[in-house]
Amino acid sequence: MKIVVFSTKSYDREFLSAAAKPLGHELTFLEPRLTSETVQLANDHQAVCVFVNDQLDAAVLRSLAEQGVRVVALRCAGFNNVDLPTAREVGIKVVRVPAYSPHAVAEHTAGLILTLNRKIHRAYARVRDGNFYLGGLLGFDLSGRTVGVIGTGQIGTVFAKIMSGFGCRLLGYDEYPNAKCRELGMEYCDLTKLFAESDIISLHCPLTPQTHHLINAQSIAGMKDGVMIINTSRGAVIDTQAVVEGLKSGKIGHLGLDVYEEEADFFFEDLSNEVIPDDTLSRLLTFPNVIITGHQAFFTREALQCIAETTLQNIADIDRVGSSKNEVAGDHSQP
Ligand code: NAD
Fold first, then answer.
1. Ligand 1 atom at minimum distance from 80 CA
2. What atom of ligand 1 comes closest to residue 156's alpha carbon?
3. Residue in 96, 261, 263, 309 annotated catalytic
4. Which of 43, 60, 178, 199 has the fewest CB within 10 Å, making it most exposed?
5. What is the predicted pLDDT for the residue at 329?
6. Calpha distance 78→86 (Å, rounded)
7. pTM, to two decimals
8. Residues 41-46: contacts with CB within 8 Å, 24+ apart?
9. Is 234 assigned a catalytic role?
10. How far is CA 120 from CA 128, 137, 257, 289, 292, in A?
11. Residues 6 or more apart whose Cβ sits within 8 Å of residue 36
């Protein structure tokens, strides 16, 4: 198939080109994001390959269908950026990579926790400046602390295993509890209990209408004083303004974000010579107890190779047999 790849970075080109060879796909690499302004660039292709911040709203999908596009291939797990009912209506199949390396995201999540707790980012800068003073670097033992995991699918399960290795008590919230987490000793409970008893709350659920702003002023009020919140799922699961207020009051002791609800305009780009026009993001960057990474949790060699191979196989399956095991159903209910 002729496939146009939007939001291309050098690493996408490297891994997708290698995976395309055995399948015989023809790839066109484009740097712009897919939006209503760039959608015409898909002309003359049967498939578009997109990432987390490409826009696949109704207007874009209709335009893609008019141009003859039959497949939208997400090179990620989440599909919150696709208007699925419209895709179905215009006959475009949507495929994704449901699992690549849950270890990549879970390990990054643990990295954020360790860095925030033991202030490794601050120690690094301090020691390089010849300052070996320990004041301000005090952390806490993870052993014995309670970790609340919201969403215990593939990533949440690997994360729970890692935290169980540190000797943490595990609380979980998920409509579909899983046996592996229970074997680790996880206690499933409602959100009220999870918020009230967790020292660390980590988000591993998809972004859906039900999880939009799940972390908000009211839920923060029900959390422990000094709670650590980690979000490596999708930005809008957190009401960022509410979290800023929680940090200002001291209610939230640590915040680790790999995603941000307005990330589409900033993440994956080098803006080091520009002024960030987003006041909320700028405010977050001023807190000493906040770490933000730019949606890099997935970014390991193993994950990129698996994403490239699965994405292109998904398209080949649609081309050859008309369906793929990784097709996204027309609603948000599938795990
Ligand atoms: P998964 O589908 O295996 O697991 C998601 C779990 O969330 C499921 O068990 C599901 O039942 C549960 N869930 C659904 N709605 C829920 C709700 N309202 N409350 C609580 N739980 C709910 O997905 P996964 O592979 O573990 O990925 C989880 C999320 O992580 C993805 O949806 C994606 O948004 C995010 N992600 C981020 C990165 C990154 O680089 N930061 C990479 C991959 C995935």
1. 34
2. 26
3. 263
4. 43
5. 80
6. 17
7. 0.91
8. 41/4, 41/6, 42/4, 42/67, 42/69, 43/67, 44/2, 44/68, 45/1, 45/2, 45/3, 45/4, 45/69, 46/1, 46/2, 46/3, 46/70, 46/71, 46/319
9. yes
10. 12, 8, 16, 11, 14
11. 55, 57, 59, 60, 63
Quick one: pLDDT at residue 53? 92
Centre of ligand 1 from the C-alpha of residue 211, in Å? 10
Q: How many Cα atoms are found within 13 Å in the side-chain-facing hemisphere of 265? A: 8
Q: Is 154 in the pocket of ligand 1 (CB under 6 A)?
A: yes
> In sequence order, which residues have a C-beta less than 8 Å from that of residue 267 and are 6 or more positions away?
53, 260, 294, 295
Beta sheet of 71-74, edge-to-edge order: 26-29, 2-5, 47-50, 71-74, 93-95
Mean pLDDT confidence for 43-56: 96
Q: Which residues contact 205 (CB under 8 A, 6 or more apart)?
A: 150, 151, 153, 156, 174, 211, 214, 233, 237
- The one-letter code for the residue type at 232 is T
Q: Which residues pair with 93 in a beta bridge?
A: 71
What would you measure as the largest C-alpha separation in the chain, in angstroms?
64
Taking the CA of residue 258 as reference, the ligand 1 atom at the shortest distance is: 41
pLDDT of residue 330: 60
Asked if 148 and 191 count as a contact pair (C-beta separation under 8 A), the reply is no
pLDDT, mean of residues 16-34:
95
ipTM of this complex prediction, to 2 decimal places: 0.99
**What tens digit of pLDDT does each residue of 252-310 get?**
999 999 999 999 888 998 999 999 999 999 999 999 999 999 999 999 999 999 999 99
